[in-house]
Amino acid sequence: MNRIKKGDHVIVTTGRNKGQRGDVTRVTGDHVFVQNINMVKRHTKPNPQANQPGGIVEREAPIHVSNVMLFNAASGKGERVGRKVLGDGRKVRVYRSSGEVVDA
Fold first, then answer.
1. Which strand (E) or helix (H) includes residue 11?
2. Domains of the chain by residue range
3. b vs e for 82-98, b when ≥16 Cβ sit within 10 Å of the residue's Cβ?
4. φ/ψ of residue 8, rounded to 5
């Protein structure tokens, strides 16, 4: 069970995008893609077979999972995440500061 999942609302803790918040669109290994965060310009060649025009495309670049924290709306800041096994055997993510369950 990963600490950060697709659809989570996260806050960036380091780098040029520090303090910005967004939703995770994709998780690949130990990197995450956050919507409209860490945008880079990619110069692409046209590909007529895929009907793709060339030019400068702006897209999201991956951010290492250690540079983002799960955003807790109750406290208004980023929180560390731990794991806990409930009485019925389910594994859930919890905020380390309050013990509140992230996954309902």
1. strand 9-12
2. 9-44+56-95
3. eeeeeeeeeeebbbeee
4. -70, 150
Dmax (CA) of the chain: 57
**Would the pLDDT of 17 be above 80?**
yes
Cα 68 to Cα 9: distance, rounded to the nearest angstrom? 10
Tell me which architecture the domain covering 9-44+56-95 has in CATH: Roll (2.30)
pTM: 0.85
Residue pair 8/69 in contact by the 8 Å Cβ criterion: no
Spatial separation of the C-alpha atoms in residues 44 and 59, rounded to whole Å: 12
End-to-end CA, the chain: 15
Q: What is the pLDDT of residues 54-76, one digit of tens each?
A: 999 999 999 999 999 999 999 99
